[in-house]
Amino acid sequence: MLIIHSFVLETCACMFKEYEKDKPITGGINMSNEQLDLLRKQLDELNVDLLNLINKRGDLVKEVAKFKPNQGADKKYDPVREHQMLEKLKNQNEGPFHDATIIHLFKEIFKAGLELQEKDYHKEMLVSRKRKNEDTIIDIKGEKIGDGQPHFVCGPCAVESYEQVKKVAEQIKKHGLNMIRGGAFKPRTSPYDFQGLGFEGLEILRRIGDEFDLAVVSEIVRPQDMEQAAEYLDMIQIGARNMQNFELLKAAGEVDKPIILKRGMSATVSDFINAAEYIHSKGNGNIILCERGIRTYETSTRNTLDITAVPILKQETHLPVMVDVTHSTGRRDLLIPAAKAAIAIGADAIMAEVHPDPAVALSDQQQQMNFEQFDAFMEAVRK
Ligand code: PEP
Ligand code: MN
After folding, report:
1. Whose CA is closest to atom 5 on ligand 1?
2. In whole angstroms, how far apart are CA 67 and each of 62, 70, 71, 314?
């Protein structure tokens, strides 16, 4: 009995009583030491057999995973299949273990198998740090985003005119920055709001970029515009509302320009990483992940800045991570603390909106900085 108990204890404590109750088949307390040793030896051998069988099952599970390559890590679990396997085992169970114990044990084995599939899945992801351990550094006009120093992408929410962008460019240069942003295709909540100047806006940005020696960044919303947009822009943004526009992601993967991919407002970190994988899978690995706040029940900020997404993304992927303090907070008074927090937690870059006269801006009047506020912002975050 002692021998059986030792096995039971090693596998599952809950089986102890079960066995004792059902099948007391011992040689009694007078069992000789040789008998005990023999039975223990058999148990040791059985343990190894079980170990080998469990690992053999693990190998098989990994093989199965190869046949479902397009499913996300969280999609590998198949409750119907698990139910069928457990039913079969229950039907074939002849004891001494109760059905409930067998189900408990096999559920653990299945869970371990699922974890193996998930690990393999992440290893296969091009953006995963398991796939490539070194940080990806994106070199754009001498700014090496991902080099451990904070970088800044500032500019108006929308390109409104050449004069407006020029005024912002002067301020950006004044602070020694090398990049400017400005939306030309604005995905607005209301169809009646300013939609952006389109390609005319991109032309303005390019002109400014050339005149001021600045890298220019703008959002593109249609896959068919990607190629043409790449002629104007140094970096292409995919906005939060389009994070899972898979055709747009694939098109971004085919251009030879770095991509700023913004996190969808309802996207999990896993959704976000998968969206980046779409771009990388088409050949473009120059991706900056931009945390820009997610929608929660909190109403004191425009979105909720998920600050810990920064280190999570940096652990899970090798890509640089940016934090957009403007769209995440939606509040001018929070731009400095949010940017400081982002830098402290490891962000590689900060995005913030600046406008010559925010009160008359055609979009995001509430949160763009004027030049004075921009001066204070740059001074505070560089301290
Ligand atoms: C933007 O950066 O201009 C913008 C619209 O941001 P988001 O897609 O994060 O809302
Ligand atoms: Mn904006």
Report:
1. 239
2. 9, 9, 10, 29
